[in-house]
DNA sequence: TGGAATT
């Protein structure tokens, strides 16, 4: 058996949308290459996703390609973070610190400066209030090792930062494990993707400074904001500057009501139907469903069939549950390469 | 008193 230190094929994937199914998760990563296994980590009792998962590839090359291609992938209101998973046997628990009483003006930058002295920071965040956009003066710092976290708590707990007035309160973030304790059984895990579930409104995403983003120093490559790409679950990635034509800091604002590139609520706000042009002539309705599912509840997929040529006519229609979901899908997928063709998406007129 | 980074 290969020693765990050599294993560079197992990836940890963070910031998964809450509603992402195992099937969708797998299909995104399968587009890179063959997978040994994949799993979204869930609460054993409720089945709720913890928002992260694992994907193990058969080859290191594919694992690296998955990082290059999928790290930073926008999915619903989040951006995936993809990195090599540390071997489970390592001392990787208790590395996450919860911080209270941060000075109001602190962002991750100041947090990293303050905490970086005590070790390698894998991830950090400052929570902000969605309404006021102000810091909640609460944050998290995830270190690489337990020793670093221990050291930071010993050095910084109850200390008043240079620009602050209150002493910092530091705790191990998951010492209580409240949310993982067995509670009352609510419902069994639903394995089937159907029936269509109600999507969470865009505004329910969490926020930290910069919104869901490419987190802090120390981790593997971050896709820079200037190197945006679209991901095509079937045809592979391609550069496309049209994606996320708002800056990362406006993520939260955009989640509250999409208003991008000509997609305006006044052009009906009523049509849920997307006209999909240039889908090629071998595209199935199932493929369309897979393509659009990350953007909401797909009610109907239709690929028009040419009976004479016995092939798809090269266009179709996809009906989403709401105008917002349709707008979101158009915003994300228009111009995006699907089976080596740029999709042309618009509201059905 | 708080999100979701080790199955």
TrEMBL record:
The keyword Repeat applies. It comes from the Eukaryota. The keyword Metal-binding does not apply. Residues 9-87, 95-175, 272-349 form the RRM domain. Residues 181-192, 199-213 have a biased composition (Low complexity). GO terms for molecular function: mRNA binding. One of its GO terms (biological process) is negative regulation of gene expression. PROSITE patterns: RRM. Gene3D superfamilies: 3.30.70.330. Keywords: Repeat, RNA-binding. Transmembrane segments: none annotated. Pfam families: RRM_1 (PF00076). One of its GO terms (cellular component) is ribonucleoprotein complex. InterPro entries: ELAD_HU_SF, Hud_Sxl_RNA, Nucleotide-bd_a/b_plait_sf, RBD_domain_sf, RRM_dom, RRM_euk-type. This is RRM domain-containing protein. It comes from Potamilus streckersoni. The lineage of its organism: Eukaryota, Metazoa, Spiralia, Lophotrochozoa, Mollusca.
